Every structure is written in structure tokens, then in C-alpha cells.
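TODO from last week: model DUF3168 domain-containing protein.
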Amino acid sequence: MSTAAEALQCALVATLRAASFDVTGIYDGPPADAVCPYIAVSDGSTTDWSHKTGRGREHRLSIAIWDDGATPARLHALLGQTQDMIEAMSHDLDGHRIASLVFLRARIVRDPDGPWAGRLDYRVRTLEN
């Protein structure tokens, strides 16, 4: 059985890879030399969310989408598609299940000398089966 964080990360990456995005890749963590646009799933943080009779975890996930377009229009579309896929993903994980998946925020920023960066943040609570 995998840890809750590992099971969630694997399920999230598999869900996004199964979608037909207009990106060069979907990476489990920040890539070394990816070409824009691409999606990177961070490892986030995990805290205890157990109860009297079971083990649980609360995860903070951050998904970054990088795009070098002239405007943020394509990035807005990619953020929307990514959000739809995350919120529709299966709640059954390897040895765990998602009890709640809550959107926290979306943000787009740009470094004047670099690409656009879009970010989606979620709070996910899991329980061990």
C-alpha cells in the first residue's frame, strides 16, 4: 500500500495525463528543461487528519502551468481545463479514498523576462481504506 500523499500524487498525474491538453508535458514535479506550455504537479504538504477509528491526511496541492504566449488567454483556458479534470477525478486511490477535494485559489503571474505562470491550489482530505 502506498502512502496517502503518493497515492494522491499518482492519481492526479494519471488523471491529467489521460486528458487531451494542448501542452508539451505533464510532470510529477518541476521539470529540468521542459518546453512551454507544460503542467507541473508539486508535492505540496501533508498533515494529519485522522479520527478515532481511522487514519486520514490533509494535503495541500499546487498545480503550476507554464506558458510563453504573448497574452494569458491560452493559460486561462488551460487552467480551466485542468480544474475541470481535477474536480472530476476518481476519489478511489491506492489504499485510500478522497473524502473532500476543495478548490482554494487560482492565480496567474508573469515575470517580465519569462513565461506566464498559472497556479491552482487545492485542499484534499483522504482516508485510509
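Done. The longest strand covers residues 96-110.
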